[in-house]
Each structure stands twice: as structure tokens, then as C-alpha cells.
Amino acid sequence: MSRATAASTDGLIANLYEATVEPTVLLDFLQELAVRTESRAVHMAVFDDRSETVLLDAAGGVVGSTPEELAMIKRDYDQVYASIDYRRIHLTALPIGHWFQCHEVFPPQRLKRERFFREFALKWDYRYFTGLRMGQGGGLTTYLGLNRRAEQGPHDAEDMRFLRQLTIHLTRASKLFYKTRSFRTHFAPGLESLQYLPSGVLILDRWRRVLFANAAAESLFRHSHGFNLNDGVLETAHSPLRKKFSDEVNQVFKTGVPSAVLLKSPDGPRGTGMPCYLLRLPEVSESYQLGGDPAILVLVPQAAPSAPEAVALLRTLYSLSRREADLATAVANGATPQDYAKSAGLEISTVRSQLKSVFQKTGTHRQTELVRLLSVLPRVTLG
């Protein structure tokens, strides 16, 4: 290895470890790694294994493309293709610290049949992929992926030798990620963990200005399916409903009582539509900051129930622990504290203490209030 290459490798490793205490340096590391391996883009993703949501999806090293194009690729992947990515499925089954190259695992005959390959990989020229299951701990798993264009060919033997030399540093850094307070503070399950939920999630201020919208919600007003954005203010696409929607938002702000509105399509049959649920959020939360101002959650649920989605919403919106979220969902489904204590193998005193914490975090005082609150989150039903 030449002196220049050795120096650049030392700097790369230094940035990797520095990123464990200063997360903003992570993008510098990904950028340098992409240049060093001549990759089109390098992605690092951190998953919450318990809620099955993405806490971090960092991308760097946009070699041969612009940041705007990378954003388009990421949006296309998140909204349509993530669930059918055969590479991701293979990656989750690998041992920690094990690399794989897509072209060595999946034969060309299979790739030609894969919708993901035909519609996404070829469209964006992410033809070759090299991936690593980087680390796991504290209910989180980290993955690293490098993409190359078709004209570049796969990462060669020299690239793979270099990447395998980095493996020990990557796995050690991932352990530090999970232990370092700055990482947990920076990438804790906050509003970004709602970005990848199938249901549309928006957060509004009292003037109906959008403070946050996940990918599923953006598609609702991008295609005028239910909502429009007018100078940052959320309106229903069906004009006769606009005053009703505005009045309902004001009422929820005023009373704190959850509500629902049926979003109607101008061309749809009478009595049909898409339910939209309104819920006032706590002004102070450990999971996110809203500047101390009141805000409302607007939820447009997906058609199919999803228990992990309910848990992600509860834990993010109300800073509930996993145990507290499980208890809340059980109560919403009609269980008593005694029922839950028996099924979970816990002392009733422990369950009552957890329920008291749930009341405090959700701003409720008794089980009937909690059930009414959670009824606004239809995905809380576990079936």
C-alpha cells in the first residue's frame, strides 16, 4: 500500500470512529468510502428491530450523481421498492461482519424475473451491490451497502480486500454507536422513525401548517389523493370538506378529544372515502421537539393492519417503552391489567406501575380515556 493510500485509509478510519461521538462526521466517512471504492453511493441504515422501523438512513459519496438525484432515488426506494428488495432480505440473514456481493449470490436468470431489479436497479443504474451486516445491539441493527453502475462492473478483488480490512473497524464502531449517548440522542426513535411507516402521518400546528409529513403522507397531497398543500397549509382535496376539516382541527386543539374525518374523492360514490384521524400531541416529548407549541397528528391508515406500526407510533409519539407500548395495545384491545400481568408473566404491581407511566406520558387519567385516545390509532388493534 502506498504512503498516500495508507494516509487516506487512516483518515477514513479516524472519521468512522469520530462519527460515534459526532454523528455529523458520518456523512464524511460515507463520502470518503465511496471515493475510495469508486462507488456510486454508499448507504448506512440503522433499524429498530423491535418496531421494525428505520431510525437512520444516511447516504454519502454520490459519485456520478447529484444530491437531488440521490434524494429522488431514496424516495422511490422508500415508497415503492423497499419491501421487495431481495438484497435487503439476504442481508438481514448474514452473520455480523460478513460481506456479500449481489452478482455472486443471485444468478442473472433470477434477476431478470425480479421486479425490483427491472424497475429499480436498472432504472437508477444501481446494477452492482456489495453489502455488510455491520452490527447489532440494544435492539438495533446496522447495515452498510455500496452501489456501482453497470458500466463500472462489480467491486473487484482489491476493493473487497480493502473492505474486509475495514470490517473489524466497522463492527467495533457499530458497538460504539449503540453505547454512545450522542448517537442515541441524535438518532433516537424520533419523528424520522415514522418516515417509513405505510400509513400517512402528518403533524400540524394550530394554523394547519405542516410541521412533518412522512413519505406515505406526501403521496396523498402530491397526487391530490385526499389532501392539498396551499402555501404550506393542509387542506382537503375535496372542497366541500375543507371547512369541516378546519373546524375539526380547531376542535381537537381546543378540547384535546380525538376526532375523525372521512376524506372523500370528488369522483367517488356517496358514502365512500378514506378515514383520517386527528389526535392532539403532547407538547413535550422525549422523542421529538415541537418547540413547546401544541400540535396535531393527522393519520391516514393503510388498509392492512400492522402491529409493528402501532408500536412504532406509540413509542415515538408518547415516548413509551416497549413494555409500556405492549401494555397500552393490550388495554386498547380490552385486556385488564390482571389479564396482561398473567399473559406477560409480570407481577400486578409492576403492571400497575407501568400503566401509571402510560397515563402520565399520554396525558390520560384512566383506562377509558386511554382506550378513547388509542382508538384514533387503528393500527393498534393486534387482531
Supply database-style keywords.
Beta-Lactamase, 12 strands, disordered C terminus, Arc Repressor Mutant, subunit A, 383 residues, 5-stranded antiparallel β-sheet
Notes on the protein architecture:
With 383 residues, this protein is α+β, with helices and mostly antiparallel strands. It folds into three domains: 3-186, Beta-Lactamase (2-Layer Sandwich), CATH 3.30.450; 189-303, PAS domain (Beta-Lactamase, 2-Layer Sandwich), CATH 3.30.450.20; 304-383, Orthogonal Bundle (Arc Repressor Mutant, subunit A). It is 45% helix and 19% strand. The protein contains 16 helices and twelve strands. It has helices spanning 3-18, 26-37, 67-81, 86-92, 102-105, 108-113, 115-121, 157-179, 181-187, 215-222, 242-255, 307-318, 322-332, 337-344, 348-362, 367-374; strands spanning 41-48, 53-60, 99-101, 128-137, 140-148, 200-204, 210-213, 227-230, 233-236, 259-263, 274-281, 295-300. It has a five-stranded antiparallel sheet. The protein has a five-stranded antiparallel sheet with strand order 7-6-12-11-10. The longest helix is centred in the middle third of the chain and has 23 residues, at 157-179. It is globular and about 65 Å long. The chain starts with a helix and ends in a 9-residue tail after the last helix.
Outline, from the CA principal axes? globular
Helix content: 40-55%
Distance between the termini: 59 Å
Q: What structural category do the secondary elements indicate?
A: alpha+beta
Total count of domains: 3
Estimate the mean pLDDT confidence.
78
Report the count of strand segments: 12
Q: Give the oligomeric state.
A: single chain
Radius of gyration: 23 Å
Provide the succession of SSEs. Answer: HHEEHHEHHHEEHHEEHEEHEEEHHHHH
* Biggest β-sheet strands, sense, barrel: 5 strands, antiparallel
CATH architecture of the largest domain: 2-Layer Sandwich
Strand order of the largest sheet: 2-1-5-4-3
Supply the CATH superfamily name of the largest domain: Transcription factor LuxR-like, autoinducer-binding domain
* Low-confidence runs of at least 5 consecutive residues: 181-189, 378-383
Instruction: Output the number of helix runs.
Output: 16
By CATH, the topology of the largest domain is Beta-Lactamase
What proportion strand? 15-25%
Q: In CATH's first tier, which class of the largest domain applies?
A: Alpha Beta
